Amino acid sequence: MNILVFLFVLQLGYAPTGVPTMFDAPGVDDRAMYTDFKAEFVLLNFFFVGGYAKTYFTFSDMHGYPFEAYYGFSAGFRFGNGLELGWKHVCMHPIVTSLYAPSMGESYNEIYLKFSGSFTLIGGDK
Known about the structure:
Elements: E1 4-15, E2 32-43, E3 47-60, E4 63-78, E5 83-94, E6 106-115
Antiparallel strand pairs: 1-2, 2-3, 3-4, 4-5, 5-6
């Protein structure tokens, strides 16, 4: 039995069709590069706590300029049968001066029950 497990994901990407923004600032192109880092601790294969930070940035003259960040925090319980009961907080924050951003961001909370599962379509043990 695993007592404490640390999970992580680092993702880099490009959003060619644009991303939703909370503001309209000069020089910000909504077609953006992004970084996404996720981390989670799992205790006794039952309790989990984790979070993520996703930052969008645009390029100009070979320099990256971040303009918006999304943060999330979650905690809950995973039961052995694919059920998860949890709470999630998500917030979005502009990374621009107050001249362009109408507020310091938005946020919301979720309380959820999730079922995860899988099955083999082709192959597997005989």
